[in-house]
Amino acid sequence: MRRHTLAQHGQALVASYMLVLVLTILGGTLLNTAKGASQHSTVQRLDSQTILLAQGALEDAVRQFTSDIANYAVSATATCYPDTNLDAVCNPNTATQTDVLVTTFCTSDSAACPNSPYPAGSNPRAFAWAVQAEPTERTITDPDGTIVLVKNYQITAQATHPQNAGYTVTLNQVVARRLITAFQHAVFYEHDLEALPGANMTLTGRVHSNADMYLDCYGTNTLTLNTEYVRSAGSIYNKRKDTGVADSGEVVIKQAGTSNFPGMNNLDSPDATWTAESQSRWSGTVKSSVHGVTKRTVPSVGSIQPGGYFDQNANVKIVNGILYKNGVVLVEGVDIPVGTVITSTTLYDNREGKYAKTTDIDMRKLAGYAATDTTTPSFTNQLPSNGLMYATRNDAGSTYVPAIRLTNGTEIHRSGGLTIVSNDPVYVKGDYNTTSKKPTSVICDSMNILSNAWTDAGSSGALSGRVASNTTVNTAFIAGVKSTVGTTYSGGLENYPRLQEKWTSKTLTIRGAFIELWNSSIATGNWQATGVYYNAPVRNWDYDTDFLTGAMPPFTPWAVEVDRGAWWKQ
């Protein structure tokens, strides 16, 4: 019995050892499996974080590239970008950060991104560069008729994980850089586009907003968009922005390919059926961000400042009343007629609530026609040879609005047209570019129109003493507005050109384009309802279709966009 018991005990001991061995092996296997899973998870995390860095660098490169093209910091047809030594060859070197864009990402110690996956002090960065994928740009016509200059680029982004240099990712993407001249649009707004006329109003030509769009009309009136191109990179609303309430007027928009004008009837972006119903109702005329409309990059307000692009490239400059051509001062009575430029005049701007001290530029005298001339100039035509004139003043004093005023501009005596740029508010007095019409534009802080009947003497008196007369202006505008903030209405597209007179029953005719690229920084007075400092005219406003078939004004800016194509990971 005892021997048998010992044998049993021996077998039990062996079994116990075997069990311990099995458990040890199994435990080791499970431990290795868990360790492997943990390592795999770490690899995935590091890899995904590095990919995100590279993707962020790609997006930042596209943004900077398009912005630099729009703001003239780089040629629109550059061989490569950036090009540190301007040798038309890209030699990206991330170690020395030459010929590359550097994108720095915030870390968890930054208030801007407290949830950053990158810890404080890790300095997460990525590098990117672009190289042309085709040697020359192409001219194409989009299905909607827009003429576009296209050139393909390959953008490369390289990122190394800031905590583990062993993880480096390189991404590539082909993008089509697209250039669209700004004046192919009848209306183009960088900020929210609002149109809320108090009378019947019709617009033709392309309408685009880089932000939201608010379309409505007062009373029993109708806003008619006689165009097959209404685009918003944001949302489109059939209501006011300042109150969020729809008015009782109608908004009708042309149905593409037909002569029908279906109404909005409160159909707008928040509606659950908007995505499909807007396409069914207008057959593709109306599109918002949900239909793939993207923002187009345009020049910033810096381009019109002294020292900016337009100042640097203007052939004629007027600075504090001194007129320069090719850098040489022109002398009145010798080079130009007396009274070509006057800086002593003032007018009361009722919207701003203060006097404007104006630099008056007599466009006829600038072309060499003295006051007594009829058909023959007695001085040399001093309009800019390249078609670009820049005017500014900083000597008005703090109690005045510094301003530029264009007078006697019925005919622009330059065959290639003319672009006038100022960082100040511009006032156009009387008919402009109505005789032998040329391609012209005015680019400025804010656009003001004074009728043929305007007199400075009555500018500060009662509205009844400022009665306008019929006036026609044929030019494209690029200017700032005072955007709606809260319940303070901007005045909308219908008040884009600022008015100072009683226009009741008088017609203001405009043929051109209405482009808003910035908020006004000098003329910042709020719009007020009609009857306060002006009464609205009969608005005979329309797009100048000559911009589609003839020459654009000199130095017309680009709206820049990209179409993203194939991308791959190296």
Number of domains: 3
Shape: globular
| Count of helix runs | 5
Low-confidence stretches: 1-10, 19-26, 29-35
Tell me the fraction of residues in β-strands, as a range: 25-35%
End-to-end CA span: 77 Å
Supply Rg. 32 Å
Largest sheet: 13 strands, mixed
Number of distinct beta strands: 31
**Strand-pairing-aware structural class:** alpha/beta
Task: Give the overall pLDDT as a whole number.
Answer: 92
Helix content: 10-25%
What topology does this entry show?
Layout: H1 2-70, E1 80-81, E2 101-104, E3 125-132, E4 138-141, E5 147-160, E6 168-181, E7 185-189, E8 193-195, E9 201-204, E10 206-209, E11 213-215, E12 222-226, E13 230-232, E14 236-237, E15 250-253, H2 274-282, E16 286-287, H3 309-313, E17 316-319, E18 322-325, E19 328-329, E20 341-349, E21 354-362, H4 363-366, E22 388-392, E23 401-407, E24 418-421, E25 426-429, E26 440-443, E27 447-450, E28 471-481, E29 507-519, E30 538-543, H5 546-549, E31 558-569
List keywords for this structure.
single chain; alpha/beta; 31% strand; 5 helices
Explain this structure to me?
This protein is an alpha/beta fold. It has three domains: 32-180, no CATH class; 191-228 and 239-291, no CATH class; 301-531, no CATH class. The chain contains five helices and 31 strands. It has helices at residues 2-70, 274-282, 309-313, 363-366, 546-549; strands at residues 80-81, 101-104, 125-132, 138-141, 147-160, 168-181, 185-189, 193-195, 201-204, 206-209, 213-215, 222-226, 230-232, 236-237, 250-253, 286-287, 316-319, 322-325, 328-329, 341-349, 354-362, 388-392, 401-407, 418-421, 426-429, 440-443, 447-450, 471-481, 507-519, 538-543, 558-569. Strands 7, 10, 13, 16, 17, 18, 19, 22, 24, 26, 28, 29 and 30 form a 13-stranded mixed sheet that branches. Strands 1, 2, 3, 4, 5, 6 and 31 form a seven-stranded antiparallel sheet that branches. Strand 5 (147-160) and strand 6 form a beta hairpin. The longest helix is centred in the N-terminal third of the chain and has 69 residues, at 2-70. The N and C termini lie far apart (77 Å). Mean pLDDT is 92; it is low at 1-10, 19-26 and 29-35.
